[in-house]
Design a protein that fits this description.
heterodimer, A: alpha/beta, eight-stranded mixed sheet, 12 helices, B: mainly alpha, 2 helices, elongated
């Protein structure tokens, strides 16, 4: 096998746009027909909209198909067959995989997959791991608590498919994981940005190991948080590990739909042979096609069959672009990746605030530690933002740091903050999705 | 070293594989060890099919 080819599947990844779109239409019609014929929920939804499979003649027609939102899944999953309900398109005996969403925005949703779907999950991951330089000689360490969340499960299976040697870090604690990486000379790793930084911190402070010099991890694939494409966070991770850091995007209900390639274009490619993406205005629902405009991502997994994901309202905010990539892939790209969440971007004092903007400021100041928390609340009738940070060193001059932070925040977010310094190591540490942004005006965390 | 196959040739051979595997699957109800293993093979063949799927003109 030629390992020098940069493409997992050159035939799909470099397909001319018109042919790629023809393939997407063919696949959309196929999955739509499948769902219509095999799921009571889908059939009812589409019949109510006056749509039948034969009505979809062009990609423009796809916009007529009703969207599915996460909130619709909970009532569905109270129906038979237990525990998935009538969006299930296969007999229960075909289901081999159970996963669930993390429930950060409400009740968790259950996600069934057949073995065929699981092959597809691994294939989506294999596509981008290959693009990121993973090859059969890589020894990949997975510091992930294998559990009900899909997280890096598919990464594990994709590594096997690519031919890498996979080392499951499972229930080991952080220090044991670092020592195992050292002992086995692991060459690559996958984790959330928060945990990548946390591991480096633990390695240096608890074990006297400098990952950049003493460990051989040179590729890190991150997921679960926006940090992989937040410039300051990415730089911190790359410096701490002396490794190339790659972002990817996905979700339990959707699949792994986006990835950063080896050319590091500052954005995510969409795996368009497997997914159809549309971007719409969050308020009007109109499709957005003009480069530079941002909108909400509506996405279809074109080859996932047990519980199809058709025109799913992801709530992810992305930017339209016609930018070409040096890697040669014809897949569309979203500059900056997922730049926010429709349910995260919030108005504070009348100004739109994206939590990732605060992250970029905090992590761009080298005298600050990796951890921070934001609390938005009401003080009387006025919105108030409290930012909790830690200095990188206990001896730091917090007064000048506070001034610097305040100026940068004002510049990047147009807002004023109350800033509190905490002793290094006292703010919460996270292994999976970090919950740093809390908005008590909404009656809970975002 | 064998010569590289064209996409069309690969596609045709994948279809042959699928038919063979399906035949074994359909005829192996009494032997779980065969039936379950060939079921997995069918899932892999499905992925192969998607990888060489003909693009409409």
């Amino acid at each position: 096998m030629k390992t020098s080819t940069p493409y997992w599947n050159v035939n799909l990844e470099t397909l001319a746009r018109d042919r790629l779109q023809a393939l997407q239409l063919k696949k959309f019609r196929r999955i739509f027909t499948w769902a219509y014929e095999n799921s009571k929920f889908h059939r009812g939804l589409y019949q109510e909209a006056g749509l039948e499979p034969g009505d979809l003649k062009t990609l423009e027609d796809v916009a007529r198909v009703p969207k599915i939102e996460k909130s619709m899944m909970l009532p569905i999953q109270r129906k038979d067959p237990f525990p998935y309900g009538d969006a299930l398109c296969v007999p229960l005996e075909e289901v081999t995989e159970f996963r669930q969403t993390s429930g950060t925005t409400g009740q968790p949703v259950y996600q069934p997959d057949t073995w065929q779907d699981w092959e597809w999950w691994a294939e989506c991951w294999a596509t981008f791991l290959w693009a990121q330089g993973y090859r059969p000689l890589d020894r990949v360490f997975l510091p992930f608590g294998y559990n009900v969340f899909v997280a890096f499960w598919a990464g594990h299976y994709a590594c096997e498919k690519v031919g890498c040697e996979i080392v499951p870090g499972g229930v080991l604690d952080t220090q044991s994981r670092i020592l195992k990486i050292q002992e086995l000379r692991a060459t690559a790793m996958m984790a959330t940005p928060t945990y990548v930084l946390g591991m480096a911190d633990t390695a240096v402070k608890k074990l006297g190991i400098n990952p950049a010099k003493d460990l051989g991890v040179r590729k890190i694939t991150v997921a679960g948080e926006p940090g992989g494409l937040v410039p300051a966070t990415k730089k911190r991770m790359e410096d701490a590990w002396n490794a190339e850091v790659f972002d990817h995007a996905g979700a339990t209900e959707i699949g792994a739909w986006g990835f950063e390639c080896g050319s590091h274009p500052g954005g995510l490619h969409v795996n368009e042979a497997m997914f159809l993406t549309q971007i719409e205005d969050p308020e009007t629902g109109e499709l957005i096609t003009e480069p530079g405009k941002r909108g909400k991502l509506v996405i279809t997994a074109l080859d996932r069959y047990a519980q199809p994901c058709i025109r799913f309202d992801s709530k992810d905010i992305v930017e339209v672009s016609d930018q070409e990539c040096a890697c040669g892939r014809t897949y569309r790209m979203f500059p900056g990746g997922v730049v926010g969440r429709a349910d995260d971007i919030t108005k504070v004092k009348g100004v739109l605030l994206a939590p990732s903007a605060i992250e970029d400021v905090v992590r761009s100041i080298s005298e600050l530690g990796d951890e921070y928390e934001v609390e938005v609340s009401k003080r009387g009738d006025v919105d108030h933002i409290l930012l909790k940070v830690e200095p990188a060193e206990d001896t730091a001059d917090t007064k000048s740091l506070e001034d610097k932070l305040r100026t940068e925040l004002r510049l990047k977010t147009n807002l004023g903050y109350e800033i509190q310094f905490y002793k290094r190591g006292t703010l919460p540490r996270y292994e999976v999705k970090a919950k740093r942004f809390k908005d008590s005006r909404k009656g809970g965390g975002a | 070293m064998s010569e590289a196959l064209s996409l069309k040739e690969i596609s045709s051979k994948v279809e042959d594989l699928r038919k063979l595997a399906q035949e074994i699957y359909d005829g192996s109800d009494d032997i779980p060890a065969v039936n379950r293993n060939v079921k997995r093979i069918l899932a892999s063949i499905h992925m192969l099919t998607l990888n060489v799927e003909a693009v409409p003109d």
